[in-house]
Amino acid sequence: MRKISTSCSTRVAICLVACSALASLLPKAQAADVTLAEKGRYIATAADCLACHTAPGGKPFAGGYPIITPVGTIYSTNITPAPKSGIGDYTKTEFFDAVRRGIGHNGKRLYPAMPYTSYAAITNDDMEALYAFFRSEVAPVEQENRPDNIRFPFSIRSGMALWNWLYLDTRTFQPRPGETSQVARGRYLVDHLEHCGTCHTPRTLFMGPANGRALSGSVVGAWYAPNITTDKIAGIADWTDSDLRNYLTSGHAMNKGQAAGPMAEVVTNSTRFLTPDDVDAMIAYLREVSPIASKEKRSRTSYGSTEPTEDIARGQTNPDDRGWKIFSGSCASCHQAQGQGINVYPSLTHNSATGSTNARNLVATILTGVERQTGENAVFMPAFGPGALWVNRLSDQDIADVSNFILKAFGNPSVQIDARYVEKRRAELTP
Amino acid sequence: MSSETLHADVVIVGSGVCGALIGAQLAKAGKSVLILEAGPRVKRRDIVETYRDAPVKLSLANMKLQGAGSPFPSLPHAPSTYGDYLEQNGPVKYNTSYLRVVGGTTWHFGSALWRLLPSEFKLNSLYGRGRDWPIGYDDLEKYYDLAELELGVSGTDDQDESGAGGNPSPPRTAPYPMKQVPLTYMFKTLAEKLSAGGYHPVWEPHGRATRPYNQRPVCAGNNNCNPICPIGAKYDGSMHCDIAESRGATIIPNAVVYRLEDDDTGRIQALWFKRPDGSEHKVTAKVFVVAAHTIETPKLLLMSKTRHSPNGIANSSDMVGRNLMDTTGISVTMKTRDPMWPGQGPTELLVFNKREGDFRRNAAQYKIKVRNTTPVSQYAATLLEQGVLGTELDRKIQELSAHTLAWAVDFEVLPDPANRVTLSTKKFDALGLPVPSLYYNLDDYWHAGTELAMQDLNNFTQLLDADIIKKNMKFENRQHPSGTTIMGDNPKDSVVNRDCRAHDHPNLYIAGTSVMSASTCMNPTLTAAALSLRIAERIQGEV
Amino acid sequence: MKQQSLFATAVCQVSRRRLLLGGLAFGSMGLLAPRGLTNTPKASDVTDFLILSEFLTGRKTLSVTLARRYYLGLQDQFPDLAVRIANLSREIHASGVQTMDDYLSHGPSPEARNTATTIVSAWYLGVIGQNPKKQMIAYSDALMFQAVAGALVVPSYGAGPLAWGNRPEPYMMLKGVSDEQ
Question: Where are the alpha helices (DSSP H) in B247-387?
Fold first, then answer.
């Protein structure tokens, strides 16, 4: 039981204790350009180094965070300036090579779980600042790195050279002709520092980014990073600027979606600390991204409530819909009897997680719950999976039933799942 | 008979907050722990749905409905106390309600988690009444700290919890683990108006999370603390059952312990439990802990009549089952001129305490609390019974809901050996075990307390521009039982010693409010939890 | 599903009647006659019950699903329900009033008042009948909670983390609710 309960993984839930301890490390939402190291702190925040390089409950940047990939589990490394187990003895060149080329100490190739293909374009000035930050502002922690658990043939690191030849573009960032400075800044943030494509761009057979389908949505462990292109149906064309701003700064866009799992960590550790100008720049760039359609017929946020099951089933000793019964007992106290939500509790209608063409985010959210830090407030939904309190815990069948009810009543009714589907998502959440 | 004998370092009878806390601490320390629970293991969603589906909804605000409507299961082998399970013999009904499920009665407690004041350990030496505890506040302080962390208590730092408006008391070494909930409109208004009359509002410390706490979400004002917090923001004992289990403890639900056995050295050798099918099973252990609630614990000890203990286990003093106490109370309903709107946020928070002072020589100390349970369904039903229809119905529902205040007072009850739990000779449960038989009465000390409280409540009507529209002086049980295995230094007049160890048996501990030497007027759970953590520490040094 | 199509028909009829008859709409009530004991009322019975319920409760958008369930439940407990409803409807119709409040001041007969109270009790409390035959139909949809919505939550459906503190203001603004200083 404990083993499972500590497995909140695929960048799922850094426990809140850790988050609050880390908050002091992070900048206020203003890029105070005071010193080089302070600038570096902002770069590190925008690049969200912390989320992956800190184990749940662990010391900041000391590594050990499990990143579950289709080829096995990779553990992030210690990037504190500790001389033995960290990067204390890295020269500036070595540091630059690690971040931008995926080349570690002694030429050892890093796996692209470290998003160096995105970071490759980080400007030299920003790299100088980042280096200064990690040298002077991060507390050294001696903590040995944990060996990865990667399946053959991906376990042969030298193969990465070929991979890099295929996928690594080593040019640093340059504004494009005709691009406004705001869009250019947004592109720098979205494509490089925030490395959004690492999750939102589908991967090729060789796990490289499918660049023709940039930001069009991809599976991330048990989760699904949706299409964030400008496509009118598949993308986020129906999100207003204010929706996107709310989402990036708080993780909550009313009647659109909420950040959970890996995206909750992005908001908690990174995007909520961006300056308003940078958030606007990201939005401006996202409006320029090429639309990429997928198979869906309706926007994932367009689904409203269909049947008033509460009216039909309340008081019945054996309601036909077992899923409703679980929904009512486990979900409705917060999401309300008709799934409409209230105040900070999101509605289940007009919700990316329930209107998607797959049930991954719905199921993963039920399994792991939500933990997200927003300003002074911690957003918290309890887990109902293996890490939940016994009295709240749901079985695979329970989760399949309640998901199917939610999809039918509030979301995309053409998506229906079975217990086996939930079992697979459970497995994907376990390193 | 049993197929095999179970064995553990420590076996605990009862999975409520006390048993679960001890189980969790000892399991964390690497001991093998077995927890036996008479009732079933329940899921939160099932209780929530049973509550919503019930045509009669039980809440503490609706005392007349006590006896029906609990959403918790009543099973033949573990009958609900909301039915007619308890046999009443005395002039005052002791209709307490406890839950026989994994996690215990905290599932439906209001979650007030008070510390006692130093003076409340010394009632006899200070005021010549009742008994002193054999231990003092200082002995318990660090366990109070730990208990507040374990249970996740939200509270207001730096207030005088005695109600006298003086310096912060009781003394604390650590602040409350979580900040207090925001005040509702009613609480703010009442505090302001009554402060003007010299009353000192005290904000109750309680077990509702105000930040995510050990998998508990933040209190959302579901206003359903009793009978069930639908989201698990409020602490209950099942949470420590989880911790115990995750550290290797075993919990067996539906295991009704009916007998403890001792040997000629006084050591407890074994206990026996029955399954719902009537099968009998034996458990041996190095240390035994009985944490089965103030009514069931003495019942078990009294049922365990052995060759060496003919009056029952731990009962050489004949004190087992005696000194039954409560914080038995009265209630007053007021109609206010201005709208107050009880029912926002959690069901309780504001109290006015009279815990200290020379009046205690002659009268019981007390706590006046305002109920914050939304009264809508109660009033709607009453109005419809009266035939109110049309717009008037909505208008009256609004008006009664906004303008009616339900005050309740809890009083200290002195330990009286005549007030007691015995075994029924007439009534038995499905397993053939006698039901508890209760004798209870209240003395002049209690009545003198009610007179003082009524003076305050009459003052309140002036300060609030309100009228008393209903009064119930008839001994409302407050579900705060204590005293039936009373603690003391003298084995002749007490059941357990200062460590909560039975005087008669070196390897038997009793956990729960049953060991309390004085009831006080306060909710007893935190004190029982602190004592339990102290018991766990003692046992850890022994096995 | 058969049930669904029944609802659809009823909804359809309700809107048609509302359209035709405006606020007061029980033209067909007098036609209701006692029928044999059956558990499947005609769609028109449910529709008539819904329209009558909307008049009695002063609400404009009651749930057709709940109307059907209340109707069935009441029929179960009161075998003469159809007659009582017919009598009540006839009396309201004959009085010529437009609202429930007017009807009440007009002075309903004791029998009509009794029937009205039975129906209104069901909708307000979400529960049909008396102990020990009480039957639960609706909880969060019980109309009593609408009277205080905005100020108080339906117990067990919270308004969100620590979401309280302002002076409660119910959505339903009613003349005469005393709030004088």
Answer: 296-303, 376-385
